[in-house]
Amino acid sequence: MTARLEDKEYKMSTLKLALYLGELLIKNGAETYRVEDSVIRICKSRGYNHINCFTTPTVLIISDDKFDGLCFMKTINSRGINLHKIALLNNFSRDFVNKIDPDINEEIKELRQIDKEKGYPTWLYLAGTGIGSASFAAILGGNQILTYILTFLTSILATYIYDKTIKYSSIVMFSTILSSVIITSIGVFFHKIGYIDTPSALIVGSIMPLIPGVAFIKSMRDLISGNLMAGTARLFEVFMIFTAIAFGVAVILGIGGI
Predict the structure, then answer these.
(1) Coil, strand, or helix at residue 62?
(2) Within 13 Å of residue 9, how many CA atoms lie on the same side as its CB?
(3) How many angstroms from the chain centroid is the CA of residue 117?
(4) How many domains does the chain have?
(5) Which of 54, 88, 191, 207 is the least buried, fewest Cβ under 10 Å from its Cβ?
(6) Residue 258 and residue 250: Cα distance in Å, rounded?
(7) What's the average model confidence in pLDDT over 211-239?
(8) Is 69 a residue whose pLDDT tops 80?
(9) Taking a C-beta distance cutoff of 8 angstroms, is the pair 51, 36 a contact?
(10) Alpha helices, DSSP H only, in the chain?
(11) What average pLDDT does this structure show over 182-209?
């Protein structure tokens, strides 16, 4: 272990591994405390006990403030929620810590494989979104079969457009406003032609996939645990998304005179 501690190349590789692990955790929706804990555990398992980790939803910094002053930073441009990948990354972290002398390059390759893991098929993801949205609309009073079907189709369309838009623009606010406008326009249209009595159930049900509920919970968790910057940043992001949804809905309802 002593020889390893004096090997600067090995230390740099270990910090790069920890940085990559932290990046993947942030990208897939892990909490701030989980990211920092995993990164520090990786470093301490190799004997680097003076590592600092600074984490926000958009940047990750790892540095050593005691010896050679190594510092690595990674900006995070896109984030999502993939609990399956988070579970794989947690398992990777635990396994790495228990290894005696792992090959860092092989470990990085394993992280790349986790990063390339495919999620659920698109059709299953959209179908689940549609069923969830339609069921929520039914709870709100849209329990007519036609309202259920229209909410199912509307939520799928809005989610598909949201994913495609954010893929090319990477602007969450724009994608949210566009999806909200489409959802509300469909609800107002079918209300105007007499297919549904009130558009509220369809609109609210279809908008549910856009609500940043997980982000709100994580912001509260970060604030409570003392990660004030990360918690505030997440909370501001939640506020902006809510504002974008409200703006998209309000504009169309105002135009439609409802």
Answers:
(1) strand
(2) 2
(3) 16
(4) 2
(5) 54
(6) 10
(7) 87
(8) no
(9) no
(10) 2-5, 8-27, 32-45, 83-98, 104-115, 122-139, 145-169, 172-192, 200-207, 213-224, 228-256
(11) 90
